[in-house]
Design brief:
Elements: E1 2-4, E2 7-14, E3 17-24, E4 27-34, H1 38-60, H2 67-83, E5 88-96, E6 100-107, E7 112-118, E8 122-131, E9 136-144, E10 151-152, H3 161-175
Antiparallel strand pairs: 1-2, 2-3, 3-4, 4-5, 5-6, 6-7, 8-9, 9-10
Protein name: Phosphatidylinositol N-acetylglucosaminyltransferase subunit H conserved domain-containing protein
Keywords: Membrane, Transmembrane, Transmembrane helix
Transmembrane segments: 42-61
Length: 189
Amino acid sequence: MGSYMGQQEHVISDGMYNYKHHHAGGADIHVIFVKKSKFRVVLSYIGTMLLLATVCCTLLSKDSLCLGSLWSISFASIIAKCLQCDPVKKESLVIMPTFGVQLEQHFWSGRVHRKFVPISKILKPVLNEHVTPVACYWSLALLLREEYELMLVFKNLNPPVKMLVPIWKALCAFVGSNTPGNSALPQST
């Protein structure tokens, strides 16, 4: 537990993710950060430099362009495009009493995507379990009025269930749908 401008702060760290919960200006803020690996950053820079060198060598070679060099340039451009993706730095949920919920996605490039959901539109928050042959994932979603699909709270991240449960409980308290006694609440280990 720490302090954030005189308010209580709750922090959970697990593997790739950090979870912070604090109150600021009357809002209840839940943030999940992605831990950025320095190794991955260095590897992406080295990969970009190697691809740039490959393209330059191919273009500057004295031989005429052949099928091999065209393949090399196209492969390098595809890899460069993949490295140029805009990964998520953090996703947050801001609960604003009497107004609604704001979902935010912050990208490493500095771009921010925000979506506001008014309280009148939220029916219930839902914890979903996704089972695959290899792993089990949990997601937090909002069941909305007049919508046929669930709205995922964290669209790009798959945080562990022990980070999702406090957020789910806060959303249940906010919406007024108190946790039902027969609900299957996942046990965190």
